[in-house]
């Protein structure tokens, strides 16, 4: 008898697999790959060792729009065959009667996910440098795609991306702040005053970093986690990536483990930015603004999570230092303000 896995109705999902995924035959073994507050990711293995990946919304979530797996399936299906590597989409189940929530299935892609510095230590230096370059090449390729031509032209509004994001996250901050953080207010004012004009629109991943990529042999094998993907200003992705590209010896604004790039060898921010500018022809002279916006936005998001922990809405975690979590929000706000005031961040 198969071991029960939370979030998987094994019998019903097995029947669906056998009816909808060519060549799939049970019994299947299910195991959770990645949990948390984003969509849940499971490995599905058949008796012959063939592996698949199943994605479904978090357990107990209410808003269908918040974790829309059908939308995610649509995105990776549209990108199949393009210069942006994604796992091949195999099927979508929108009937919640099968597994209590919609889910989709994609082919398992071999490789490693570099979640933190420890996971990057085993990568040879040559692979680190090549991977840094390929990360930019894939991002440039994503931003070069015509959303209408690949069937994603209605994914979101193309114009006024920064203005919409600033309004959204200002509301989030005001509704969730637990203390006064002067740097948040000062950065918010400067972000409003100095907002660059958006030049063009592209597909924006929204969470483009090494922790959302499967990598092998110095190349990306698959870009993951398209939950936040929309249309808008491509430089928002660049600013986000550069912030996540922590250099050796730098203080990481995040709470938790060090970023994978902190071990060194992946190339520095300046080289990555120059490579992106050369490939796309985009002007990165105001990239400090986009980096500041990314820090500020993540601070607003972090304060919302901090509030939910304080209220007990996130359960209890013995490994979580709430004071460190709270401090990370302040570090992000101060990093945003430093960039806006002319520092390097």
Would you mind describing this structure in some detail?
The chain has 345 residues and is an alpha+beta fold. The chain has two domains: 10-107, Phosphorylase Kinase, domain 1 (2-Layer Sandwich); 117-340, Aminoglycoside phosphotransferase (APH), C-terminal lobe (Aminoglycoside 3'-phosphotransferase, Chain: A, domain 2, Alpha-Beta Complex), CATH 3.90.1200. It has eleven helices and nine strands. The chain has a five-stranded antiparallel beta sheet, with helices on both faces. A hairpin with a 5-residue loop joins strand 1 (29-34) and strand 2. The protein is globular and about 60 Å long. The N and C termini lie far apart (54 Å). The relative contact order is 0.12. Residues 61-66 have low confidence and may be disordered.
Write a concise synopsis of the structure shown.
This protein is α+β, with helices and mostly antiparallel strands and 345 residues long.
From the 3D structure, determine the CATH topology of the largest domain. Aminoglycoside 3'-phosphotransferase, Chain: A, domain 2
Give me the CATH superfamily of the largest domain.
Aminoglycoside phosphotransferase (APH), C-terminal lobe
Number of domains: 2
Write the CATH architecture name of the largest domain.
Alpha-Beta Complex
How would you describe the shape?
globular
How far the N terminus sits from the C terminus, by CA atoms, comes to 54 Å
Class derived from helix and strand content: alpha+beta
The level of helicity is 40-55%
Task: Count helical runs.
Answer: 11
Count all strands and give the number. Answer: 9
Rounded mean pLDDT is: 91
């Amino acid at each position: 008898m198969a071991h029960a896995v939370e979030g998987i109705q094994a019998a019903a999902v097995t029947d669906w697999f056998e009816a909808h995924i060519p060549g799939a035959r049970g019994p299947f073994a299910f195991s959770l790959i990645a949990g948390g507050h984003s969509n849940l990711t499971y490995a599905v293995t058949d008796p012959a060792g063939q592996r698949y990946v199943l994605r479904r919304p978090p357990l107990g979530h209410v808003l269908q729009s918040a974790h829309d797996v059908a939308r995610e399936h649509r995105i990776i299906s549209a990108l199949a065959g393009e210069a942006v590597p994604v796992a091949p989409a195999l099927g979508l189940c929108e009937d919640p009667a099968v597994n209590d929530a919609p889910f989709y299935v994609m082919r398992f892609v071999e490789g490693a996910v570099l979640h933190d510095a420890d996971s990057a230590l085993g990568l040879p230096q040559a692979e680190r440098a090549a991977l840094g370059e390929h990360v930019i090449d894939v991002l440039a390729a994503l931003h070069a795609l015509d959303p209408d031509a690949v069937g994603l032209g209605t994914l979101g509004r193309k114009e006024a991306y920064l203005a919409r994001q600033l309004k959204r996250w200002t509301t989030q901050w005001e509704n969730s702040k637990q203390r006064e953080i002067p740097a948040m207010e000062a950065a918010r004012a400067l972000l409003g005053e100095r907002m660059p004009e958006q030049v063009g629109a592209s597909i924006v991943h929204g969470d483009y970093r090494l922790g959302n990529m499967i990598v092998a042999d110095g190349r990306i094998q698959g870009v993951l986690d398209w939950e936040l993907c929309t249309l808008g200003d491509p430089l928002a992705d660049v600013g986000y990536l550069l912030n996540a590209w922590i250099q050796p010896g730098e203080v990481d604004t995040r709470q938790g483990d060090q970023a994978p790039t902190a071990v060194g060898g992946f190339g520095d921010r300046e080289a990555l930015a120059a490579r992106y500018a050369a490939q796309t022809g985009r002007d990165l002279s105001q990239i400090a603004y986009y980096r500041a916006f990314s820090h500020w936005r993540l601070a607003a998001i972090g304060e919302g999570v901090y509030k939910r922990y304080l209220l007990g809405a996130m359960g209890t975690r013995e490994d979580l230092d709430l004071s460190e979590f709270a401090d990370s929000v302040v570090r992000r706000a101060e990093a945003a303000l430093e960039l806006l005031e002319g520092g390097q961040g």
